[in-house]
Design a protein that fits this description.
The chain is an alpha/beta fold. It has eleven helices and 19 strands. The radius of gyration is 22 Å and the shape is globular. It starts with 5 loop residues before the first strand and ends with a strand.
Length: 394
């Protein structure tokens, strides 16, 4: 490990690392080595010089992201082993060679011991998203290893890192194919078909983390009138239709999202029972007269992207849940979610309860929902449990 710089932590600031937490904040660092740039591989030591592990230096509030703990070297064997473990888990979960579902998360950052790296598979294309400078600098090596380890299951690797790194003020080039070329394909989720736009779409192109929730909605949609707000490309809408909904409305402020939604509805043969509306979802909820819908889905973008705007985000969640609870038909269901990492499950449930109190209606909690198993959470990194969902009967 002598060939890479060493960063020492301040006295008493090594407890979290010894508990295998992968994040080290800037306030825990002693003086930095000279000429250290974001993305550099560094050794991490405690105040006395004892080696704690190896990390990427990121330069922001989360200054270090731990890759290995102890003396394990971060070399090609390390990367191969980590990716192999991630692949083995998805094999155990039944995603490899699955005739009904060929879209899944292959690497989920800290949950797979690879902080700052997301890899989603859509049919024969893997979409790589680096969320740290270190992973971005390693993207070509990672793409080549993925291509080898997948043994013909993928023909292309697309880098979708620019937006994510831009939010963290890390410089990144344009998104581009690292291996292969663009081929449009229809992917499968539990037998339903979707066009996924990983080039221009949000995140990596599709919200794979709602797979289980979409399947649950399907089971509750028979003969129901369903409203899917913040609908994006219509994942919930397709499954509501497939579950036998009498009518489904999809609402999103993005014209491109509505176009994708309509394509996916048509692809699955449900155009006759579906209607899309391009308008702000909050405003749409405000205009409802009440008793119009049996089921409402609230799956907004993260209202609280960090702890600085947590209070404002919670108030946003309270407002849309208040409007939905107030206007659902008697006995109706609300599927409500938060993907804000800054809002924990207890706080989300509390703010939804506050909305129910304000709406003045009796509400029963039927289900707690979270991200599926291909989005694993490290027990040492509880922050990784970002997706919270509740199914309520009003």
């Amino acid at each position: 490990m002598n060939h890479i710089p060493t960063i020492r932590l301040k006295k008493g600031k090594d407890q979290a690392v010894r508990r295998f937490h992968p994040w080290i904040f800037s306030g825990a660092l002693q003086q930095l080595p000279s000429n250290l740039s974001p993305g550099s591989l560094v050794s991490v030591a405690d105040a006395s010089g004892q080696l704690l592990g190896t990390a990427f230096y990121e330069g922001g509030t989360i200054a270090l992201k731990m890759l290995s703990f102890g003396a394990e070297p971060v070399d090609e064997g390390f990367w191969r082993n980590k990716l192999n473990k991630a692949l083995s888990l998805r094999r155990e979960l039944g995603f490899l060679n699955n005739p009904h579902t060929n879209a899944y998360r292959l690497v989920h950052g800290e949950g797979d011991g690879l902080p700052g790296l997301v890899v989603d598979v859509y049919g024969s294309t893997a979409v790589l998203q680096a969320q740290s400078a270190g992973m971005y600098e390693s993207r070509e090596m990672l793409a080549n290893l993925l291509f080898q380890l997948m043994e013909g299951r993928i023909s292309a690797v697309y880098d979708k890192s620019a937006e994510a790194l831009g939010r963290m003020e890390h410089a990144a080039g344009d998104d581009a194919y690292l291996i292969g070329e663009h081929r449009e394909s229809t992917v499968l989720e539990n037998g339903a078909r979707f066009q996924v736009d990983w080039v221009k779409g949000q995140k990596t192109g599709f919200f794979l983390d709602q797979r289980d929730a979409r399947r649950l909605l399907e089971s509750h949609s028979k003969d129901k009138r369903v409203l899917n707000t913040f609908s994006y490309s219509g994942g919930f809408s397709v499954f509501a239709c497939r579950g036998g909904a009498r009518q489904v409305f999809s609402v999103d402020s993005s014209r491109r999202a509505i176009e994708l939604c309509d394509q996916n509805i048509a692809l699955n043969g449900f155009a006759e029972v579906h209607e899309s509306v391009c308008v702000d979802a909050k405003k749409y909820l405000e205009t409802l007269q009440g008793n119009e819908f049996d089921v409402i889905v609230l799956d907004p973008p993260a209202f609280a992207k960090n702890h600085h705007n947590r209070h404002k985000g919670l108030q946003g969640y309270k407002y849309i849940n208040y409007e939905a609870i107030r206007k659902l038909r008697q006995g109706g269901l609300l599927f409500t979610f938060s993907c804000s990492q800054a809002v924990d499950a207890a706080s989300f449930q509390a703010i939804v309860m506050a909305a129910a109190i304000e709406a003045g209606r009796e509400v029963q909690l039927l289900h707690h929902l979270s991200q599926p198993a291909d989005h694993p959470v490290s027990i040492f990194h509880p922050e990784g449990a970002y997706l919270k969902g509740l199914v309520l009967r009003v």
